[in-house]
Write a sequence for this structure.
């Protein structure tokens, strides 16, 4: 049933937001010359797929999990995109093509071995990864692999149609945030800061 909702909502979302998507592509192109960011992630049954996002980091930024990336690598417009979660909008295409769902565990990189182990042992890869879910609205990200995997597994076990709409509703209206990033202080030390306070 949720796949039907995924298809419907992602198609409508892309259709209605097409003017916004074109505008954001235009602005991102002038900032970095490469508006769309593609990265291989772990999908359902641990199969690889290419996640798409609006580029929010410099072209030379290392390909690491977001919570391990430096805040200095984020572009000025990228900060705006992340704050409003607009960088995630292209993932509607991932949902439409069946690589992702609107609701599900956030897809991780193949080099996040600890998280893969924790998720694999709890059956998290039995479902499509998603744009949002229980972990996201509770501000749990990939910097805490065991807690994230436990939360993902709980969501999968309890997810129903009502929960599906609840997670989408809470996300749209600003609940939770994405993966945290490393903020560099003036003295050269680092600290972890949320990707977004929304």
């Amino acid at each position: 049933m949720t796949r039907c909702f995924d298809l419907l909502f992602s198609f409508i979302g892309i259709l209605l937001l097409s003017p916004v998507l074109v505008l954001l592509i235009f602005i991102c192109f002038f900032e970095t010359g490469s508006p769309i960011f593609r990265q291989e992630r772990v999908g359902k049954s641990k199969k690889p797929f290419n996640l798409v996002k609006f580029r929010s980091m410099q072209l030379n930024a290392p390909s690491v999990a977001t919570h391990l990336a430096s805040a200095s690598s984020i572009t000025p417009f990228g900060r705006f995109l992340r704050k409003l979660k607009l960088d995630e909008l292209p993932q509607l295409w991932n949902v439409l093509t069946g690589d992702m769902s609107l609701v599900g565990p956030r897809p991780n990189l193949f080099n996040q071995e600890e998280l893969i182990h924790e998720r694999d042992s709890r059956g998290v890869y039995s479902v499509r990864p998603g744009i949002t879910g229980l972990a996201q609205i509770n501000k749990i990200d990939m910097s805490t692999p065991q807690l994230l995997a436990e939360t993902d597994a709980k969501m999968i076990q309890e997810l129903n149609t009502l929960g599906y709409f609840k997670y989408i509703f809470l996300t749209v209206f600003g609940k939770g945030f994405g993966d945290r990033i490393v903020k560099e202080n003036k003295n050269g030390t680092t600290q972890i800061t949320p990707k977004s306070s929304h």
